[in-house]
Amino acid sequence: MPALHALVITHTHERIARTLMGLACQSRTPDSITVACDSDDPRIEPEIQKAADELKRPITLLLRKRSEVACRSQNRNNVVRALISTLEKQGKTDYRSDHLFFIDGDCIPNPYACDSHDHALQTHDLSLGWAVRLTPEQTDALSDEQILLGRTEEHLDQEQIQSSSRAHLQTRKRIMLRKFGMTKPHKPGILSGNFGVRMNAFLEVNGFDETFTGWGMEDDDLARRLYMIGAKPKSVMNRAIVIHQYHPTEEPPNWKDSPNAHRLSEPCEARCVSGIENPASQHEPRVIEINPS
């Protein structure tokens, strides 16, 4: 039976505790949790230690000094590299058949996220989840108790609640149209803060392309390269939902304004050059196995 690995991506100690709280109350417990932080801020390790103590389970933490230019692609590859290193140290060699669940460290998963992704990946290569953005007021009103009880959607308005169903129907339509070659190469797209992928498919395309730096499009690029190798997607947007906690971001008002947007119209190979193998230059990452006290 393939294992399910939760991979948490962050660049700060802020908000990460609530992401891990959400992972603690899943209907299907992840077999491992790995956190990659695009920073060596000394405040991150105590937060992860506290979570390991509360969850009563080990968490692998990867830290690296922040580069001048943010590279989310590299941080997402780093978390997989850290996971593979941990599995190999444990003597596991059949991990290529395992399932990966990526979630951003500013998001809180609903109780069915892990199960929904894991179930979809039994038959498909890629599982597509949904994210609902909280307002500042909703973020402040959400309590730790509600997260631990799986009641993260209590503060959502009707529009937010219905957004996942609409996104699910639209994505299912795009999946059908894709069979007839009637969609863009990267559609249906991936929300990098909430998606699942089979490890073997992720490794076949060499993971995220680390030449994507700054904000945006690295997830769309991953999607199109996965589709180039015949990866089959499945929408779980009506069940695997994460709640995005409010905070200021670098996201432009229009995605077309992203400096990486034009790259989606350029030809590419399915397997990127600078990825899981042959990573781009970076400060040396440090992997720490954090066990509950």
Mean pLDDT: 93
Name the quaternary structure: single chain
Strand content: 15-25%
- Annotated CATH homologous superfamily: Spore Coat Polysaccharide Biosynthesis Protein SpsA, Chain A
**Which ranges are low-confidence, i.e. pLDDT below 50, for 5 or more consecutive residues?**
none
Cα Rg:
18 Å
Overall helicity: 25-40%
Total E-strand runs: 11
Instruction: Return the CATH architecture.
Output: Alpha-Beta Complex
Sketch the topology as an H/E string, one letter per element: EHEHEHEEHEEHHHEHHEEE
Can you walk me through this structure?
With 293 residues, the chain is α/β, with parallel strands linked by helices. The protein has a single domain (4-290), classed as Alpha-Beta Complex (Spore Coat Polysaccharide Biosynthesis Protein SpsA, Chain A), CATH 3.90.550.10. Helices cover 33% and strands 17% of the residues. The chain has helices at 16-24, 44-55, 72-89, 113-120, 136-141, 144-148, 158-178, 199-204, 218-228; strands at residues 4-10, 32-37, 59-63, 99-104, 107-109, 126-128, 130-133, 194-198, 233-235, 241-244, 286-290. Helix 1 (16-24) links the parallel strand 1 (4-10) and strand 2 (32-37). The longest helix is centred in the middle third of the chain and has 21 residues, at 158-178. The model has no long low-confidence stretch (mean pLDDT 93).
